[in-house]
Each structure stands twice: as C-alpha cells, then as structure tokens.
C-alpha cells in the first residue's frame, strides 16, 4: 500500500471570526499528483500556507511524512519544495546565478543547478538575464528553485495562473514527469477542473473551506461521465442492437446516444457492432458533463 505523505485531521483556520478552512481532512499518498481544486476564495492558499508552516492552524493536526508538523517543522520542511505566489528572482541575473543564491542557503551540491535546469527544460537558456524570460519560463525557474533541495514533496499554488496555453502545457508536462522520474509527490492547486483533470491522479475539491469531494480522477470521471455518442454507418440498426443488449439509447442527428455505462460494456458493444458489419467512426463522451458535475459539487449539489 502507498504510504501517506500528507494527512490533515480536523484542520481549521479562522480569520476574524470567519472560518477560511474548516475540518479539512487531506489524504495524499506517496508518488501521487494531488489536484487541490476549488473556486477563488475557497481556502486553497490558506491550506497550503498551513502545510508549509507559514501560518498556524487555529486547530487540527497536520502530519507530513508521518510526523506532526508542529513538532518536527524544520526536519519536515527540509524535504518539501514549494512555489506559492509568483517566484521572486533578480531580473538582471541569469538563471544560474539566481539559483546559485538559493543553492547556497540550502547548501545543496553545485551540480544540482544543472540537474534542476534540465528537469524544467531551461538548459540552454541559463545564461540569459531572467528579466527577458517569458512568464512561463519564470514560473519554470521558480519550480527549479523549489527543486534545488531535492524535495520529496512539491507544493505548487496555482502554478499556471496567468500563463498562455503553451506555458500551461509546459508546466503540466513538467509536473506529470515528477513522480515517475524523480520520485516526487506533488500537491498542485488550481481553480480549473480541466487543468487538474489532465495532470492529477487524485482530486480534492474544496468549497467555502470544506472538502466536498476527494477521490481519484478516474472515479470522478466515472461518476461524472455523461452520455456516449456513437457515429456509425447504420445508426438505426446499431441502436436496435444496443437495445437488444439492454443498453437503451436513442437517436439524435444520426448519432446513437447511449446512457452512461462501464468501459467493459462499451468495449463489448463496440466489438459486437463491428462483428455485425457496422463501421464505428467515432465514440464520444459528452465532456461538458464533467464541468457540470464540478459546478454541482462546488455549488453544493453533490457531496
Ligand atoms: N490574512 C487573511 N486575513 C483575513 N482573511 C483572509 C486572509 N487570508 C485569506 N483570507 C480569507 O480566507 C478565505 C480563503 O482564502 P484563500 O486565499 O485561502 O482562498 P483560495 O482558495 O486560495 O482562493 P484564490 O484562488 O482566490 O487565492 C477568503 O475568504 C479570504 O478572503
């Protein structure tokens, strides 16, 4: 079984009589990419600040690597890298010199600079002054700095905020490589489901300070999966076959619309269609249903 990297119990933070985080139970396993999802003001940054020991919880318990944060703060945080808000850097210095300043504080080996530049794909750009970097490159430099101390856990607060699509894509593929290639567990926050869906294994959805959903992305997709749309050569006959197999369904604009069903059942039906001489051009899931499911969750319709 996977060991637990972050576990919070009854975590709570109150600001001026108002709870920003309430009874939060986070559970993050080793090697996971955990997507921490919620609308603006839901309490993501407050939670992350507590996990990093930057602010004190009003009550509750935080365990990281099986140890209580309150009692073993320095020992734990030595193994945690983070990027909260925009990274700070010296614009007139190049990437190597910026990283060197942090490396000295952390007392990391000099060779680590080239390693982290390679991980974030900034090799070749290291001699340019950082003020000429794109926003995405600056963000990757921030992640490189967070990796300097060879952390086992990386915590990133909205790392793609403000980036253009190619910048978002670069950060996403970088994050996805970290567990398998570098053994790092990642907690990444976002307010966009589409983003978390594409990189995380597990998702925790927070609303008004409370966890309203915590499960694997696969399970979320299963729960949220909508109708299937099949484009086939003979829609009427295909629908008849689906009905005979107990799948139900209807026709819409020459597409066979089937209700949600398991992957195994979809595979069986398609196999049968093909064996019966149907050409299957396309199998689509109505993707907006995941967004709808998320909205339902954050608006309080599903718990
Ligand atoms: N220092 C503070 N003093 C008072 N209230 C605060 C403070 N920091 C956060 N809050 C409040 O706590 C709530 C949660 O804020 P938080 O920044 O954690 O949310 P978030 O999910 O990270 O949202 P965003 O994506 O907008 O940063 C908000 O209502 C916010 O106004």
UniProtKB/TrEMBL annotation:
InterPro entries recorded: AAA+_ATPase (IPR003593), ABC_transporter-like_ATP-bd (IPR003439), ABC_transporter-like_CS (IPR017871), P-loop_NTPase (IPR027417)
Entry keyword annotation includes Transport: yes
Domain ABC transporter positions: 6-233
One protein family per Pfam: ABC_tran
Entry keyword set: ATP-binding, Nucleotide-binding, Transport
An annotated Gene Ontology molecular function: ATP binding
SMART domains according to UniProt: AAA
Family: Belongs to the ABC transporter superfamily.
Name used for this protein in its record: ABC-2 type transport system ATP-binding protein
């Amino acid at each position: 079984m996977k060991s637990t990297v972050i576990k919070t119990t009854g975590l709570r933070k109150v600001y001026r009589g108002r709870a920003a985080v309430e009874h939060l139970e986070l559970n993050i396993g080793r090697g996971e990419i955990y997507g921490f999802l919620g609308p603006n003001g839901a309490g993501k940054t407050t939670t992350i600040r507590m996990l990093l020991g930057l602010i004190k919880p009003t009550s509750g318990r935080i365990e990281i690597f099986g140890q209580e944060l309150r009692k073993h703060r320095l020992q734990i945080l030595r193994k945690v890298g983070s990027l909260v808000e925009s990274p700070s850097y010296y614009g007139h210095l190049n990437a190597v010199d910026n990283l060197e300043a942090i490396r000295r504080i952390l007392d990391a080996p000099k060779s680590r600079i080239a390693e982290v530049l390679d991980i974030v794909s900034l090799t070749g750009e290291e001699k340019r002054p950082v003020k000429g970097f794109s926003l995405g490159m600056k963000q990757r430099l921030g992640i490189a700095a967070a990796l300097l101390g060879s952390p086992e856990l990386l915590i990133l607060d909205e790392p793609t905020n403000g980036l253009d699509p190619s910048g978002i894509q670069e950060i996403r593929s970088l994050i996805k490589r970290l567990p398998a290639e570098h053994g790092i567990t990642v907690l990444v926050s976002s307010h966009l489901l589409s983003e978390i869906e594409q990189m995380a294994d597990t998702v925790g959805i927070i609303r008004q300070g409370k966890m309203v959903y915590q499960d694997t992305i696969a399970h979320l997709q299963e729960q949220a999966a909508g109708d299937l749309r099949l484009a086939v050569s003979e829609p009427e006959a295909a629908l008849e076959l689906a009905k005979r197999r107990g799948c139900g369904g209807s026709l819409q604009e020459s597409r066979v619309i089937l209700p949600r069903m398991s992957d195994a059942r979809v595979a069986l039906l398609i196999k049968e269609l093909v064996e019966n001489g149907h050409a299957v051009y396309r199998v689509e899931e109505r993707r907006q249903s995941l967004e709808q499911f998320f909205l339902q969750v954050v608006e309080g319709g599903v718990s």
